[in-house]
Every structure is written in C-alpha cells, then in structure tokens.
C-alpha cells in the first residue's frame, strides 16, 4: 500500500509541476492536478467495458458465456 500511495503522490506532484510550468497559475495547476486523475478514471471505466466486449467477441461462444447456474 505504501508503494501505491507514494506513486500516487509522485503522479500528483508531476501533474501539478507540469501544469504550473506551462501556465504559471497555481489555480489552473491545482485544477489540472485534480481533474486529470478524475478524467482518467472515467475514461478507464469505459475503456475496460469496451475492451471486455472486444475480448468476449473474439472468444468462442462457449467460452464467452458463463456456465448455466454459475453465479454472475
């Protein structure tokens, strides 16, 4: 967990630093720092759904469908 938290802190620091270097604005840099991970999280949700649909479409039908009586 410590590795995950330190990576997250590093990511936010880099995002803020780049935003500040490009804009010179603390407010804009802060907004970028908060909005970028939010946008990526939302995009990942839809990407994952699309990816699963794509992968399921490439599997034979017997593999893609759960067995009868299996918990979903």
Gyration radius (Cα, Å) is 20 Å
- Morphology: elongated
Approximate helicity band: over 70%
Q: Biggest β-sheet: count, sense, barrel?
A: none
The secondary structure category is mainly alpha
Secondary-structure element order, N to C: HHH
Distance between the termini: 29 Å
What is the strand content?
A: under 5%
Number of discrete domains? 1
- The counted number of beta strands is 0
Could you name the ranges where pLDDT drops below 50 across 5 or more consecutive residues? none
Work out the helix count.
3
Please state the average pLDDT score: 88
Written description of the protein model:
By secondary structure, the protein is mostly helical. It is 82% helix and 0% strand. It contains 3 helices and no strands. It has one domain. This is DUF2061 domain-containing protein.
Write the layout of secondary structure elements.
Elements: H1 2-23, H2 26-58, H3 61-64
